[in-house]
Design goal:
Distance between the termini: 17 Å
Radius of gyration: 17 Å
Number of helices: 6
Number of domains: 1
Order of helices and strands: HEHHEHHH
Helix content: 40-55%
Number of strands: 2
Low-confidence stretches: none
Mean pLDDT: 86
Structural class: mainly alpha
Strand order of the largest sheet: 1-2
């Protein structure tokens, strides 16, 4: 037994959601395997890395199409604040629900928040930016749903690491450090040994 105990980074969950399910209890060995899998990203880390500021991207507010990239950029800026506006939080929740149900972030959604093109879900920069939003929300609210999404997104990014450019790898490594920091915080809070 070893790193195979943490198989989630070995699954393309956007294509095989059924394989991403509960595992049998392995205790501390499971956490050791999880940390080992994340080391694939850690080698890319740089000290005191900060995500880039939100890009200024034009949003057509009259469109019936929700373009994901500009929305995530705007929501990242909002999520960086201590108090997120109700409007921004509504959209963050929509993206969270969509990711949790599909394990995908599509490039665009229609007015009913369904993917415009179901094949356009491979832009890994969307996953990195949404993970950065999840970090901000978890830091401000301790809402475990956002830590859960962060863990799943990092599983996607570890699986796709060969397809990440250097800049996205650096950001993913920083996200992995945050993820481990959050898990250690929760373990300490509940007096669990990792």
């Amino acid at each position: 037994m070893g790193i195979e105990l943490y198989k989630y980074s070995d699954i393309k969950i956007s294509e095989n959601k059924q394989a991403y399910h509960y595992s049998s209890y392995s205790g501390r060995l499971f956490f050791d395997a999880w940390k080992t899998k994340r080391q694939f990203l850690e080698k890319e880390s740089i000290p005191k890395f900060s995500p880039p500021p939100p890009a200024i991207i034009f949003m057509n507010k009259d469109s019936e199409i929700v373009e994901t990239k500009p929305h995530l950029e705007r929501l990242y800026g909002e999520s960086s604040k201590k108090t997120v506006s109700c409007f921004a939080f509504h959209w963050i929740e929509k993206f969270l629900k969509k990711f949790e149900t599909t394990h995908r972030l599509h490039e665009a959604y229609n007015i009913n928040f369904r993917a415009v093109n179901k094949n356009e879900h491979k832009d890994l920069s969307l996953y990195v930016r949404f993970a950065e939003i999840c970090v901000n929300i978890f830091e401000n609210t301790s809402d475990l749903r956002y830590l859960n999404a962060l863990i799943k997104i990092l599983d996607v990014l570890v699986y796709e690491r060969e397809n990440l450019d250097h800049h996205l790898l650096e950001r993913a490594a920083a996200l992995s450090k945050k993820e481990q920091e959050f898990v250690k915080f929760l373990a300490a809070k509940y007096r669990l040994k990792l």
